[in-house]
Input
Amino acid sequence: MANKVKTIGVLTSGGDAPGMNAAIRAVVRAAINRGIKVKGIMRGYAGLLQEEIVDMQSSSVSDIIHRGGTILYTARCMEFTTEEGQKKGAEICKKHGIDGMVVIGGDGSFRGAGKLSALGINTIGVPGTIDLDIACTEYTIGFDTAVNTAMEAIDKVRDTSTSHERCSIIEVMGRRAGYIALWCGFANGAEDILLPERYDGDEQVLINRIIENRKIGKKHHIIINAEGIGHSTSMARRIEAATGIETRATILGHMQRGGTPTCKDRVYASIMGAKAVELLAEGKSDRVVAYKNGEYTDFDIQEALAMKKDIPEDQFAISKLLTR
Ligand code: ADP
Ligand code: F6P
Output
């Protein structure tokens, strides 16, 4: 018979993502409505180690479902990657009566969640990252908002790019993962998409395509470049020198990570937050909530972390096929 969880802690960790507030709200209210207390941990694992812990009521999460960012703040914390830091974190949880924990974040945050589970704190991960780079799930909180924000910004760059008959390199977020770049590439009808998982650095191929496209009458040439490849400004200079076509670089940056969450991010994040509480209430630990094959489900954290995800080859091929 599972021990009944009495107090759940909730934290956000790693890069923030629009929809995290909806998930926090869901955790708080799903727990309180089951008679479980909730404590908010500020600034991720860093705040846990500093004992920045606050009691949360249903009203603590009023008026946040539509807000970007995270009301709990977020951080990256080196100390928590050490065994000593993790033991300290688990002791602090025990001291505050926290016997269940919901960690909203990416793969790195889940590694920390696995450590807390191993130290006796029932812990569940909820996938929160704009990068969509968590292998066990087809949905991560914030991706939908981020790609919609980037798409709208790229539409605007496209207008001016066409008017001036220029080439535009637009850099989107994603240090190791090209999902934002791929989706924007599709949605914005980009002529080229450079993904960290695929790009071989051969600029001559790009240059040739820009020249060919100009010959067949294309007025602009949009290149979506992922942050992991970077160097958009110097790339623009080299392309302009080689093609004679005016080329500009635009780096979208952190505007992609903020802003009001889309309907999808609010709904999925709410359901995932509530599912995390459900798992804890069933006495489960060391699991990650996921969305796979059209259903909400959950995986063992270590199994989830061992899974591999790659850009679907057929999707990348289709994106290239549609550029002319
Ligand atoms: P994300 O969760 O978005 O992948 P990070 O990789 O920056 O973001 O991880 C967030 C935090 O999770 C780190 O700052 C650290 O505190 C914690 N973390 C990352 N890796 C580990 C690990 N191997 N063990 C324990 N904690 C970790
Ligand atoms: O959260 C994911 C992400 O936005 C990545 O796309 C990006 O590479 C990274 O975080 C940027 O992190 P920071 O805000 O710490 O520069």
User: Anything to note?
Assistant: Residues 17 and 142 are 5 Å apart (CA to CA). The mean pLDDT is 96. Residues 13-15, 45, 76-77, 80-81, 105-109, 111-112, 115, 129 surround adenosine-5'-diphosphate (ligand 1) (CB under 6 Å). The chain has eleven helices and eleven strands.
